Amino acid sequence: MRRRAAKSPAPEQTRSDAAGRDLAWAVVGCVAVVVVAVLLGLGSTATGWLVDAPFDLSALLGLVIALPVAAVIVGRRRHRDAQALRDELDRRALHDPLTGLPNRRFLNERFEQIIRRSQRGGGRVAVMVLDIDRLKNVNDAHGREVGDQLMVAVTTRMRELVAEGDTVIRYGGGEFVVICPDTTGGPSAERLAANIIAGLEAPFSIGHDRIRLVANIGVAIAEENCSQPDDLIRDAHSAMRHAKQKDGGYAMFDRSIAQRVTPSTTERRLREALERGQFVLHYQPVVSLQTQRMVKVEALIRWEDPERGLVPPGDFIPALEETGLIVPVGNWVLEEACRQARRWQELYADRAPLAVTLNVSTRQLAQYDFPDVLTRALTVTQVDPSLICLEITEGALMHDVEAAWTMLRTAKTSGVALALDDFGTGFSSLSFLRKFSMDILKIDKSFVDGLGHSREDTTIVEHLIGMARGLGMVTVAEGVETADQVKYLRSLDCHMAQGFYYCKPQPAEVIDQIMGEPTNSGWTPEQGRQAVSGTTPATATATIGLDAPW
Asked: How crowded is residue 56: how many other Cβ atoms within 10 Å of its Cβ?
């Protein structure tokens, strides 16, 4: 058996030990000289010699006394300097070098002590996991130096927002942990979380730039018998992910969140779901605002869990992304959407073809073989590539601009269309629209909601549509829910819309029913509901297809 090599001591430890030994030897030497002098009676001999000496030996005696004292002083100073260096290195090991905040190692070593101390005092510990979005985008758009300055400014503001006894820890990247050792319960923790979010979402002035951030917080409160601090951090992380899924803000951890799909508990179940065919696609109609005819559908994934029934995407997609399973699942979605588009193309050959759009995740786009995966899906299903549209979010493009450009340029040569999703919610770089040759610009629901009520949102939508028209792009409004929104979008010359006003995402069988209707009039919301309920109107109300799907 191989012997394990002995662990070498750290350099600072070696220097401290050497200084300590020097000091010890100096003290021992001085004591030894005194003892020998006493035993041999050298004191009286030396005194008599000094008195009878023909010349003054006081300087020599002073030197004999001073040398041991100087040795002790030097040794002590070396020991103190080495100890100070060791303390500084220990501090750096437990603190983030950029912000000066305690780091993850500090949390691992001291967290249990904080909980025990709080419990002995009769208090309750609240833990907040805070995640700041778009920090990487700041680095990409403004440079690393501005990103570092922003992180320091965030740290300074967080220290001002928390209470005096609270501890702010930089957990990594844009993630922080706040430990509140003396909270009175849920309401006080919620108030603090709301104050932190409000404080961090106020703009930061970095040089000549004003930067806005979005913060999400998950809050977990330690129970009286809490024995595993790691569980508390995990619960706060789960609550933070839940806050992101419900449009941001903060969320308190409770049992309903614990029952959601998380990476730590369901990776095996998600793998089994993929292997056993438990994932299905639902399709949401996209309607032409000019002709009120369905021109395409968006493919959206759902999970038919034998235990929980139909699981909404917000409950499992974050787990897919964090475990990396989003790549094989996304590849399955790509091939299945192509297969369904081919099926509709064959069944309804007498009508204008129904195009299918699908989302491509950041991780999928980062895979070196993504162009091969796309080519294989198009070849196996024999679908017309012009009927497939890949939706990419602005964040996915900013993750690695050059790699994304290479992948999408290759995808474009295969004949598929490209859509930019969530434009306007991030940094909205116009260079992306030009560089990536996007075909479709999707207007986010957050802007559509304000049409007719918010002058700012209406102006933004109007300018987005005008800009896209100037670039030769098709515009699609997402999240349309009212007739007034449809009216405003039509007046602004938006091309298409999708949302609950027309139809919720439905299984392929429901789209088949809609496709089977006569094509002599425009789309109405009732038509989607009738298809879902299985009823047939006395007078046909839907028409399907356009001459060009995009």
From this structure: 9
Q: 104-258 — its CATH code?
A: 3.30.70.270
Q: Which amino acid is at 313?
A: P
Query: Strand order of the sheet with strand 175-183?
Result: 167-172, 175-183, 124-133, 214-221, 249-252
d(CA 338, CA 355): 10
Predicted TM-score (pTM) of the model is 0.55
Cα–Cα distance, 141 to 150 (Å, whole number): 13
Q: How far is CA 460 from the centre of its chain?
A: 27
> Which residue bears the tokens 């992304």?
321
Output DSSP code: residue 438: -
Quote the strand ranges of 173-318, DSSP E: 175-183, 204-206, 209-211, 214-221, 249-252, 279-288, 294-305, 309-311
How far, CA to CA in Å, does 441 sit from each of 18, 173, 231, 481, 543? 68, 31, 43, 19, 24
For residue 401, give the amino acid letter: V
Say if residues 126 and 220 touch (Cβ distance below 8 Å): yes
Give the DSSP H/E element, type plus range, for residue 196: helix 186-201
193 in Cβ contact with 219 (< 8 Å): yes
Please check whether residue 331 is in contact with residue 378, taking contact to mean a CB–CB distance below 8 angstroms: no
Rounded Cα gap, residues 166 and 210, in angstroms: 29
**Tokens 């299918």 appear where?**
356
Residue in this structure with the two tokens 């220097």, named with its chain if needed: 15
> Cα–Cα distance between 313 and 50 in angstroms, integer?
98
List % helix, strand, coil for the chain (3-state, nearest 5). 55, 20, 30
Residue 211: φ, ψ to 5°: -120, 130
Q: Domain extents for the chain?
A: 12-93, 104-258, 273-533
Burial of 126 by CB count in 10 Å (0-12 exposed, 13-18 middle, 19+ buried)?
buried
Query: How does pLDDT run along the chain (550 residues), one tens digit per residue?
Result: 334 444 444 444 555 555 556 556 666 666 666 566 555 555 555 555 555 555 454 555 555 666 666 666 766 676 676 666 665 666 567 788 888 888 888 877 777 777 777 766 666 788 889 988 777 777 777 777 888 888 899 989 988 988 888 888 888 778 898 988 877 777 888 888 889 988 888 888 887 778 888 888 989 887 765 556 677 888 888 888 888 877 668 888 876 555 555 555 567 788 888 888 999 999 999 999 988 888 999 999 999 988 778 888 887 888 888 888 899 999 999 999 999 999 999 988 888 889 999 999 888 888 888 899 999 999 999 999 999 999 988 767 666 667 777 788 888 889 999 998 877 665 555 666 666 778 899 988 888 988 888 888 888 899 889 988 888 899 999 999 999 999 999 999 999 999 999 889 999 999 988 887 765 444 444 544 455 454 443 333 333 333 334 4
Q: Which fold has domain 273-533?
A: TIM Barrel (3.20.20)
Q: How far apart are CA 441 and CA 223, in angstroms?
A: 48
How far is Cα 473 from Cα 475, in angstroms, rounded to an integer? 6
Instruction: Indicate the SS3 state at residue 75.
Output: helix
